[in-house]
Every structure is written in structure tokens, then in C-alpha cells.
Amino acid sequence: MPNKFIWRFCALNLTLLVLVSTWFWQQNQAIEIPEPQFATGEKIQCISYSPYYKNGVTPLNINTQISPEQIDRDLAILSKQFGCVRIYSVSQGLDYVPEAAKKLGMKVYLGVWIGWIKKLNEKELKLAISLANQYPETVKALIVGNEVLLRGEQSEASLKAYIERAKQAVKVPVTYADVWEFWRKHPKLESSVDFVTVHILPYWEDQPQPIERAIDHTKNVMHLLQTSFQKPILIGETGWPTIGRQREGAQPSAVNQALYIRSFLQVAQEKHWNYNLIEAFDQPWKRKLEGTVGGYWGIYKAYRDWE
User: Fold this and answer.
1) Which of 100, 180, 246, 285 could link 198 by a cystine bridge, Cβ 3.0 to 4.6 Å?
2) CA distance 84 to 62
3) Alpha-carbon distance 110 to 87, whole Å?
């Protein structure tokens, strides 16, 4: 009996050893990552830029102010790889971004943050209109509102009124940005914009997409949108997180981020998509809103490992 017990114990441990060894072997296998092809001197189209990457810095604090020096440093880094930045607000010092971008030959998707509070919305809209008129060669478009309908902070009618006011006041194109499902829920907004700006984030879908299906999912969504809308489409956000909870088959990791972004860039080249990646720098403040994963969408890390 003791010999039989020892044999079973040894067999169990041997099985566990084989399983663990196989797992480690699989984890250490080389992964083939696509290398998107760019013409000589060509840059990645655009990337979301939020300068709130230092510990304790958050746009939710009304007293937060970003210095021109920081913006100059950040854009100088980004200009090496990207031809454009997208910002989501013109408050807290971000009204300096068009001037900084102009000096570097970059373009800007200029965001107007629209929320619950009318007074703040008015301030944002007036300042953004002024900047768009001051820097018409730098501002690619005015993005009036970001996921406002998703958050339920304005009705379609009130949002449309903000958009149409902007269109009457500027010569640059005007658009609105939201997740692709909400654009399909509010198709009449197409008549108010110059182009449709959609967010396609396979990780955050109601049915999360594993990395193996993420690019096919993005292609399928784009095909659906191109048959649903007549006006041009900008992918206003797409990307993949590096750290955080797994959502069904969608697993955050640095490797998966590289796989998704590089594969996406190659497909975008082939299909002539207009796009903006999310995002330039990790955003620690988002962890309180979205969980750990919210702070880890950056191509550059929050602890400034790009310097």
C-alpha cells in the first residue's frame, strides 16, 4: 500500500511538472509581430494626447494647470513618430497645444469638452472656436463633444445645437466623437457633422474580443459603418491596454498592445483609413474611474521612460 501511494504521488508530481514546464515553454516562445510598412518619412497619422501622466495630476481637479514647457517637451517627443495629436479639451493650459504643434509642423484634432454644466460648456466652445480661427492651418478639425451621448450628459438635440454653433463659427471641419454603437443609435447626427468620428476598442466591447479576433472585429465594424453612413469616417480612438483585468478573452499585455497596434496600422494603410490611436501616455488618474486597466493604454509609460 505505501508503495502504491508513493507511485501515485510521484506520477501526480511528474504530471504537474510537465504541465508547468509546457506552460513556461509556451510563454517564452517568440511571437511574430507585424511590421507596418510606411513610406520614407511617413509618420503614424495621429495619437490622443493627455498630459495628466504625473502622480496626482488629474483633469478632474479644476485647479490643474499644464505648463507650456511640459506641452513643448511632450509634443517634441511625439512629433518624431506622429503627425498629429488629438486633445479632448482646451482648458487647464491645453489651449497652448495648437501653438506648440504649429512650431513642430504637427496637426491637431481640437477637442471641445461637453458635459453636464452649461457654463463650462460655453467656456470650452468659445475658446475652441477662437483657437480654430487663430490656427486654421494647424487645427484639422473641431471635435465637439466626446462620448457625451454614451455618458448621457446631453440629449441628441442639445448636442446637435453645440455642433451647429461651432460649424457656423469656424472654417475648419466639425465632428462629434462617440463609440461606434452610439453613432448607429443616433444616425441623424451625421447631417450635422463634416465627418463621423467613431471609437472602436475591441477590449471594451460588450462582447470583448480576444487579441486573435481584434483586428477582424475592427474591420467588420468599419465595413458596417461604411455601409451605414455616407460621410467620411475617422477612427477617433483605437488601441489596446497593457495592464489590467482580463475581460473574457480580451487580455491586457504589452505584447497584445504591440500586436494590435502594429496589425491595425498595416490594415489602416491597406484600407486607407483615417485614424487616431489611444493613447500617447499612460494616465494614472483613470484608474479610479475605469479600474487598473484605465491607466494603461499609453504607448509611453507614465513614469516617463521615454526620456
Assistant:
1) 180
2) 27
3) 6
Dihedral of alpha carbons 203, 297, 240, 42, sign: positive
The residues near 166 (Cβ < 8 Å, ≥ 6 apart) are 112, 125, 128, 129, 142, 144, 174
Task: Report d(CA 78, CA 220) in Å as an integer.
Answer: 30
134: closest CA among 95, 86, 174, 88?
95
Summarize pLDDT for 119-163 with one digit per residue, the tens: 999 999 999 999 999 999 999 999 999 999 999 999 999 999 999
The angle at the Cα of 131, spanning 165 to 173, to the nearest 5 degrees, equals 50
Number of H helices, E strands in the chain: 10, 8
> Which three cell numbers mark 3?
508503495
C-alpha 186 chain-centroid distance: 21
> Beta-carbon neighbour count of residue 39 at 10 Å?
7
- What gap in Å lies between CA 14 and CA 70, rounded to an integer? 57
Contact between 280 and 298 (Cβ < 8 Å)? yes
Question: What's the whole-number average pLDDT of the chain?
Answer: 91
- The pLDDT, as a whole number, for residue 18 is 45
Q: Report the pLDDT value the prediction gives residue 10, as an integer from 0 to 100.
A: 53
Residue 115, CA distances (Å) to 28, 144, 150, 193 in order: 46, 11, 11, 19
Name residues of the chain where pLDDT drops below 70.
Answer: 1-32, 302-307
Cβ-contact 142, 175 below 8 angstroms? yes
Report the pLDDT value the prediction gives residue 110, as an integer from 0 to 100. Answer: 99
Q: What cell does 261 get?
A: 497596434
Closest to 215 in 3D by CA, of 34, 27, 30? 34
pTM of the complete model:
0.89
φ, ψ of residue 31 in degrees (nearest 5): -110, 130
- Is the separation of the CB atoms in 233 and 5 below 8 Å? no
